[in-house]
């Protein structure tokens, strides 16, 4: 599944995360697509996914996401990423973070993401964000 079209899809998805335009991220999902981050409450539908992306983009106005790898695992496409940014959004700590994570995508027949299960090391994120 790491064919050229899927690689191109992942590269464009990465660019959307770097765009400071949260709706661009949501456009990669099916209209009823689902994004779940670290086992939290699923964001269902493009409006909810836009809100989830906006939360990261607001917290990290200089947000950069890097595409680290793309591969198949257990019938899903795994999108491995690195997030880099400085938490200077409203109420931010002013601290820089660099964390890695993964989204495991189930693709929709129309070539969008039907379901994404994302994860990253919350303890490491909190340590970098708050210096603990």
Mean of pLDDT: 95
Taken in chain order, the helices and strands follow as HHEEHEEEEH
The helix content is 25-40%
What CATH architecture would you give? Roll
Domain tally: 1
- Please outline the major beta sheet: 6 strands, mixed
Report the CATH topology name: Nuclear Transport Factor 2, Chain: A
State the separation between the terminal residues, measured CA to CA. 39 Å
Q: How much is the radius of gyration in Å?
A: 14 Å
Q: Which strand-content bin applies to the residues?
A: 35-45%
- Extract low-pLDDT stretches: none
Number of strands: 6
Helix run count = 4
The CATH class name reads Alpha Beta
Structural class: alpha+beta
In the sheet with the most strands, the strands line up as 2-1-6-5-4-3
Shape: globular
InterPro entries: Cyclase_SnoaL-like, NTF2-like_dom_sf, Steroid_delta5-4_isomerase
Protein name: SnoaL-like domain-containing protein
GO biological process, one term: polyketide metabolic process
């Amino acid at each position: 599944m790491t064919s050229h079209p899927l690689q191109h899809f992942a590269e464009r998805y990465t660019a959307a995360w770097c765009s400071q335009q949260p709706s661009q991220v949501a456009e990669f999902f099916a209209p009823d697509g689902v994004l779940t981050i670290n086992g939290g409450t699923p964001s269902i539908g493009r409006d909810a996914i836009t809100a989830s992306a906006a939360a990261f983009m607001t917290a990290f106005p200089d947000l950069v996401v890097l595409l680290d790898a793309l591969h198949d695992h257990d019938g899903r496409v795994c999108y491995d990423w690195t997030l880099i940014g400085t938490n200077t959004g409203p109420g931010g700590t002013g601290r820089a973070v660099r964390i890695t994570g993964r989204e495991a995508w189930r693709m929709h027949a129309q070539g969008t993401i039907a379901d994404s299960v994302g994860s990253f090391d919350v303890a490491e994120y909190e340590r970098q964000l708050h210096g603990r």
